[in-house]
Amino acid sequence: MKAIILILLSISSLSACSKKPDPMFTNTNTTTPPATTIPVAATDTLSYLALGDSYTIGQSVTAQESFPYQLAAQIPGFKIKEPVIIARTGWTTGQLIQAIKSSDTNVKTYDFVTLLIGVNDQYSGNSQDDYRLKFIDVLNTAVKFAKGNKNHVFVLSIPDYGVTPFANGNDAVISPQIDQFNAINLEESNKAGVNYINITPISKLAANDLTLLANDGLHPSAKMYQMWVQQLAPQVAKAFTK
């Protein structure tokens, strides 16, 4: 099995608004080999960059069960190279931006890019105005990574962890805040003309189905990630067959 490709920086764990220890924000991942840019056709192998946080690296599941790896294996009609991943558990949007700037991946391009970021901005109590500015920044960077092709950038909405056991019944506070942050990333994604995949309703199903959660009672299980991929994979394939 191939090792997961990650670019890791030394960034301190974020503390919860409740000040409780956080199983959401720990990470254990490795290195990033160079990625190659190639012409795209229906029979070609596509390069893929995934940007995000714990939801992108697949905290508490195996690398192969994370959504980038499942996506790379399930895009109909295409072969996908092993994903290049810039993500770490606990990263806010600002920390993702700094990680990108510090990485050698910053000078490369990819055939398509996914972006899922913002839960730690909400969790840390960062302002929505600050999130908007930083989300626009990282979204523009994602478009550059995708060779300037907005149709090859795919933004995923922030999952609603308010329904999880980790939230300890605070869904009445958490869920509306997640909705507000998602309203921002949806609006800015529409303005930028990129693809937007709303996986938040899927995440809410965990309120009544714990098999959709990993053993930490917070992050998605492989089963939930597969449900995300079922929405995402056809859109990626469509973007390369137009």
Description:
By secondary structure, this protein is an alpha/beta fold. Helices cover 36% and strands 10% of the residues. It is built from eight helices and seven strands, in the order ββααββαβααβαβαα. It has helices at 54-57, 67-72, 93-102, 119-123, 128-145, 171-192, 200-204, 222-239, and strands spanning 45-46, 48-52, 79-80, 84-87, 112-115, 153-156, 195-197. Strands 4-2-5-6-7 form a five-stranded parallel sheet, with helices on both faces. The chain has a two-stranded parallel sheet with strand order 1-3. Helix 6 links the parallel strand 6 and strand 7 (195-197). Helix 3 packs parallel to helix 5 (128-145) and helix 5 packs across helix 6. Mean pLDDT is 86; it is low at 1-23 and 25-42.
Helical percent range? 25-40%
Question: SSE order in H/E notation?
Answer: EEHHEEHEHHEHEHH
Shape estimate: globular
Average pLDDT, rounded to a whole number, is 86
Major sheet attributes: 5 strands, parallel
The termini sit apart by 33 Å
Give the neighbour order of strands across the main sheet. Answer: 4-2-5-6-7
